[in-house]
Amino acid sequence: VPLVASGGGSVQPGGSLRLSCAASGFTFSLYGISWLRQAPRKGLEWVSGIHSTGGRTLYADSLKGRFTISRDDAKNTLYLQMNSLKPEDTAMYFCAKASNTGVLLSGTVGYDYWGQGTQVTVSS
Questions:
Q1: Other C-beta atoms within 10 Å of 114: how many?
Q2: Which residue has the higher pLDDT, 102 or 14?
Q3: Per-chain mean pLDDT for the chain
Q4: Average pLDDT over residues 68-93
Q5: For residue range 3-37, what is the model confidence (pLDDT) as tens digits?
Q6: What pLDDT, on a 0 to 100 scale, did the predictor assign at position 28?
Q7: Which H or E element spans position 49?
Q8: Can you tell me the distance from the alpha carbon of 24 to that of 11, in angstroms, rounded to the nearest whole number?
Q9: Quick one: 108 exposed, middle or buried, by C-beta within 10 A (0-12, 13-18, 19+)?
């Protein structure tokens, strides 16, 4: 399995979680990777992306300042640090690899590998 997401769980509003996405089977450092999420009864939403060099990151406007994406190419792992979580952050979170090298995506298309998802539930 090229991407395996983990780190989800249940947390109270205002809490934090760190998601991880372990990659294998391809040269991780060459590709931009994104986090996306899907809430119950809603469509897929792009959350954040990071360029292959790690020097450029993008976030959905509604999430700026609360979420931080990062990558460790030595460990072939992508991270998403989520702080000040809100009930509306409740969703299944997926990591996804861009189909082409050197691309930083900011939408829901253009990916060829997806992780299986990790559930985040924010509730009091």
A1: 16
A2: 14
A3: 95
A4: 97
A5: 999 999 999 999 999 999 999 999 999 999 999 99
A6: 94
A7: strand 44-50
A8: 29
A9: middle
Long-range interactions of 46-49: CB distance < 8 A, separation 24+: 46/105, 46/106, 46/107, 46/108, 47/80, 47/93, 48/80, 49/104, 49/105, 49/106
How is residue 31 written in tokens? 């590709």
Task: Tell me if 98 sits within 8 A of 108, measured CB to CB.
Answer: no
Q: Where do we find the tokens 């991880």? A: 20
Spatial separation of the C-alpha atoms in residues 103 and 52, rounded to whole Å: 7
Residue 85's alpha-carbon distances to 33, 63, 82, in angstroms, are 22, 10, 7
Given the structure tokens 């861009």, which residue do they identify?
98
d(CA 27, CA 52): 10
- Cα–Cα distance between 11 and 20 in angstroms, integer? 16
